[in-house]
Amino acid sequence: MSPNDVTDVTIEERNDKKSIRKQKRAHHRLLRDMNIKCMEHPTQHLMICNGGLVTGIKRETLQSMLDMLISKYTLIMPAGKSYCFVSCNSKEDATCVYNYIHGRIKLPGQNGPLYVCHIETVSTTDYVESDSTFPPGLTLIENFITEEQEQTLLGTLNWDECESVSSQLKHRQVKHYGYEFEYGTNMVDPDRPILPIPHDYKFLQTLFDKHGHKYTYDQLTINKYLSGQGIPSHIDTHSVFEDTILSLSLGSACVMNFKKDDRKIDVLLPARSLLIMTGEARYAWTHGICPRHSDIIKTKNGSTTRERDTRVSFTFRKVRRGECRCNFRDYCDTVKRNTFIDASAASGLENSYVHKVYDEISNHFSETRHKRWPNVTKFLESLEEGTLLLDVGCGNGKYLYGNQNVYKMGCDHSSGLMDICHKRGFEVLQCDCLYLPYRDDSVDAAISIAVIHHLSTWERRQRAISEMIRVLRPNGKCLIYVWAMEQRKNSTDSLYLKYGKKNSQKEVEKIDRSGINHERISECHLTLPIHENRTNFAHSDMLVPWKKKSGECFLRYYHVFREGELTKLCTEIPAAVIKEVYYDQGNWCVFLKKCTEIIE
After folding, report:
1. pTM assigned to the model
2. Residue 164's CB: how many other CB atoms inside 10 A?
3. 316 vs 320: CA distance, rounded Å
4. pLDDT, tens digit, for every residue of 230-246?
5. Burial class (CB within 10 angstroms; exposed 0-12, middle 13-18, buried 19+) of 539
6. What is the 3-state secondary structure (H, E, C) of 279-340?
7. Residue pair 392/447 in contact by the 8 Å Cβ criterion
């Protein structure tokens, strides 16, 4: 042995002793925190301080080692803990185990040797395992397909042809068929179908039919999970998908975690098993998979660990056409989007979160409103010479200048914006758009750009349009713009989204589906969600922040319109004839004419 060899051994031994001292201190702190008394003399009970299910040690591994040493013992491995207990038949057996294991045995995958101590007693009363009862509406069918069918399905997947990872997921490969599932919003766009579900998978629909499923599934998401990858807890969006959702697991088993209120249920999904979520399990329980390399599972001998391998899931959904009508209102995005605002609350809401806000921000707001929208300008330029135009909700008057051949006047509720218009020499007055102070049949044309969406009930929105129709002369023209819920970023550009920040990959992975801030409006007995600026709209009724240069933030009430909603609003107004409906830069727009006579 060379001097260098001696030096190396000495350093290694020194490092081992140092590591053992650090481990002992950590384990003593653990024992103290758990109120477990470590004994200086031998007892029948042992604690393996760093040998628990959480550290990835299998029950079978410890049992095989203990079986070599003693004949009778009780091995207690609490779920979710990094330690375990061995209760022996005698002090002598416990001493034998202690001497064999403590500081000497290092199991595969562990950072260091196992550390053992004698303890006074072992109690299992504090170790409550997860509820074993399935959530109502959850069914698991094991061996739903054969091993041959499993290999056939896996053989159809060429992950090299797909993007290395989804544009919205970190390190995870995914394929979509029928409709693309958007992980950032947990939605699909039912008006944008993609490549249909391949014929190779049609036999699964036949198997589904045999189990009584009423849908022909039209959306399929295939995810590939490497060991250690998981799914954030979520509830599949109510409004987008029908009741029953099916998930077929291939390749490897894993544990899926279901949660509702203070209940937590862990469900083992074996390879080739079909998970069926319907009713309460589908609508009210979150489900997710913890990102780890092994799972804690129950066996007839007790809890143990099982390593994960690569898992592929086929999730089948039926895209919903129309609103969700479920009985789980506390979890339903349709209900949250359709906040009911009654007539008694409407005026107070608009006063606090529209009128007062615009008076506070009028100067800063005006500084950001210069450019006129091209299609509004096109409408104005189409007006004949001598036309009398009324701009309802004229703001800072950006549509009141130009074209000297058209006489323009405006009105707005905000005194601050009216002051700005007066300084610019515009003919304006302050009024409520629900009660326009103009005579019947008195103007030739009217516009209302980004105003009606600040009114909080259907009746008030309809009244505002009716007032514009009232003051129009027969055959008079009217153009109305409102914010659209559908912000079409990839077609007609939505300026609202175009300048928005994109979520990072991590933000999308970690997004909490229910983590939207809300504002309690005490005087109206309402709670409304606060929208995150420059993102897709998740609710119809919401509060949108406006931040001044000083950093002070104000919340404005908005009702964003779904496709067809503005049309329906106008069709119910006598004398209003719809000439055109179109989408323009994140807005729904309607061009109306006043008919010459009302047909009863």
Report:
1. 0.50
2. 9
3. 13
4. 988 999 989 889 999 99
5. buried
6. HHHHHCCEEEECCCCEEEEEECCEEEEEECCCEEEEEEECECCCCCCCCCHHHCHHHHHCCC
7. yes
